[in-house]
Write a structure and sequence with these properties.
alpha/beta, 8-stranded mixed beta sheet
């Protein structure tokens, strides 16, 4: 078990112990960004925060974290645990090597869950465990959480969850937690109607809130996100292939990294876009990158409550995105602060890009409205909502 010891946050009396449990403490992606943002916000409110990850991730999938975090982080396993496999029928039951492997895995899970139990037993009154991903909940479910409030989260849409095995695991592992939090009221209602009775919603907070919107002077469309299939960068490139020839003085800047990068670069070349697409890699200065752009584009196939959209709107950029989830519709008001296209319709996405690249007044109107509208997700307001929920569950 690896551990980084927190510096003493100097919490005033009354702060509670808060455990944020995720698959990993530093995996690239929105859950890690959210976890560390909330850890800082809770710490600033005087709470004692501990981020716990189940397993480490490969170096190429790791998010670079500051060295001086004002809270503790712990990773339970030194290496990724074996994957679970289903044993079907007589053949499965007779597969002695696989049965031994699974028994060993379960024993390892119980040992790691006991580490969680030790942390939880040392917590003070009113302690809360927030489980951000349902895979991590499998270890929390094996631990001793007596006297603690347990909150489970689904950082994806109801629809995306049901396109994978995660929906069944949410029902199995989150049914008895004190609260299951979806990202939007629409998703919460879908979970309730499907039979889950402990559901509420909680949006993500703004990562930052600049004093003024971006100047929107650069002829740049920006995209920020992990280079993976679900983020739809291939679809964005298809849309750009339709829009770019009409605007040869504009460029598409893609910020991000991921395992799909070689494939995406090859796709870009095959579309003849190498002169108008710039691959920027990872950035530690998202706001700085956004302030150099005039339009933000997202072509995700699935989302929860996308932080990148919040960031773009906080920077004062009009956004173009696929209407792929309730979280997107919750953030973007089509025609007012951004433009939404039907999921997968790259021609419609290209048309929205062209409209914004062609019309500076439209960019300014939508961008200024976005800058004002997104402030409803301020970090103070969302942290207040979290504290109210934790106080309610404590009663």
């Amino acid at each position: 078990m690896s551990q980084q010891t927190a510096t003493e946050p100097g919490a005033p009396s009354g702060g509670r112990d808060i455990f944020l449990v995720s698959n990993s403490v530093d995996e690239l992606g929105g859950v890690t960004t959210w976890s560390h943002q909330m850890a800082r916000l809770f710490t600033d409110r005087g709470h004692r925060v501990h981020i716990v990850g189940i397993a480490p991730v490969a170096e190429e999938l790791r998010q670079k974290l500051p060295q001086d975090l004002p809270y503790a982080t712990t990773t339970l396993y030194d290496a990724h645990p074996p994957q679970a496999r289903q044993l079907h029928g007589i053949k499965g039951r007779l597969n002695a090597p696989e049965r031994r492997r699974q028994a060993s895995r379960r024993a390892g899970m119980r040992a790691q869950a006991e580490k969680l139990s030790a942390m939880f037993r040392a917590a003070g009154p009113g302690a809360v465990v927030i489980v951000t991903q349902v895979w991590a909940m499998e270890w929390v479910a094996l631990s001793d959480t007596k006297g603690l409030s347990v909150i489970g989260m689904s950082h994806e849409s109801y629809e995306a969850s049901h396109k994978s095995s995660r929906a069944a695991r949410v029902r199995r592992h989150y049914r008895e937690v004190d609260r299951l939090l979806a990202l939007t009221p629409e998703d919460a209602d879908l979970w309730i109607r499907s039979g889950m009775e402990n559901v509420a919603s909680m949006p993500n907070p703004l990562p930052f809130m600049p004093d003024s919107p971006a100047p929107r002077t650069g002829k740049v469309v920006a995209s920020v996100g992990r280079l993976s299939f679900e983020k739809g960068v291939d679809l964005l490139l298809d849309a750009w292939a339709d829009a770019a020839p009409h605007h040869p003085d504009w460029v598409l800047r893609i910020y991000g990294a991921g395992l799909e990068e070689p494939t995406l670069r090859a796709h870009c070349t095959s579309l003849g876009l190498d002169d108008s697409v710039e691959w920027m890699g990872r950035t530690d200065d998202v706001l700085g990158a956004l302030r150099k752009a005039s339009v933000f584009a997202q072509a995700s196939r699935a989302e929860g409550f996308p932080i990148t959209l919040l960031e773009a709107m906080a920077a004062g950029l009009p956004v173009v995105a696929f209407d792929c989830a309730p979280g997107v519709r919750e953030i973007v008001d089509h025609g007012q602060d951004g433009l939404l296209a039907r999921l997968g319709n790259t021609m419609e996405l290209a048309g929205h890009l062209e409209a914004l690249m062609s019309d500076g007044a439209l960019r300014d109107r939508l961008g200024d409205t976005a800058f004002r509208a997104v402030q409803r997700y301020s970090s103070d307001e969302i942290t207040d909502r979290w504290e109210e929920l934790m106080a309610f569950l404590e009663r």
